[in-house]
Amino acid sequence: MAQDTLTSILPITFRGKLMLESELKKLIHEERPQIIKAIEEARAHGDISENAEYDAAKERQGMIEGRIGEIQGKLAGVEAVDPATIKADKIVFGASVEIQDTETDEKSNYQIVGVDEADVKKGMISIISPLSRAMIGKKVADLVTVQSPKGDKEYEILAFKYV
Fold it and tell me: Which residue range forms the structural domain that includes residue 87?
């Protein structure tokens, strides 16, 4: 049982944890009260069986409560990591990695982050993405191969750091 608990803990950066906590606070203290008020106003319009405003507000309430539960569950199962404190001689969670496509010589920089903080446009890729999984445990000058819809892509690891 203890082994199952350990494997279900996902890493997240402190930045990612703060982002989730901020969203949770907004949902609980702003959006939840607003939707309760909207439901009360819709009820005041009379028969709720044919009240589109009421139905929409109840649907929105369900979405808000679902997201609150989802975030609370995620926060209970994450371990916040400060990448700047990591001292590793290989790529692990939190690493900022510079890679080069061996075919096109195009260089890219990515930080390996938690699932909820991934944003490829900002150079942050999820720990569970194929590229992250290929890079974990590698060192500078290692080659990694990633399967993509267009076929296998090979990258060389140029550098990595923890910031």
Answer: 83-161
Claim to verify: residue 10 and residue 75 sit in the same structural domain: yes
d(CA 116, CA 125): 10
Q: What pLDDT, in 10s, does the model give residues 123-161?
A: 999 999 999 999 999 999 999 999 988 889 999 999 999
CATH number at residue 118: 3.10.50.30
Match 């900002």 to its residue by tokens. 122
Q: How far apart are CA 52 and CA 47, in angstroms?
A: 10
- Which residues lie closer than 8 Å to 74 by C-beta, 6 or more apart? 10, 20, 116
Helix (H, G, I), strand (E, B) or coil at 3: helix
Q: Is pTM beyond 0.85 here?
A: no
- What pLDDT score does 48 carry? 77
Q: What does the pLDDT look like over 25-51, one tens digit per residue?
A: 999 999 999 999 999 988 887 777 778
- φ/ψ (deg, to 5) at 106: -70, 130
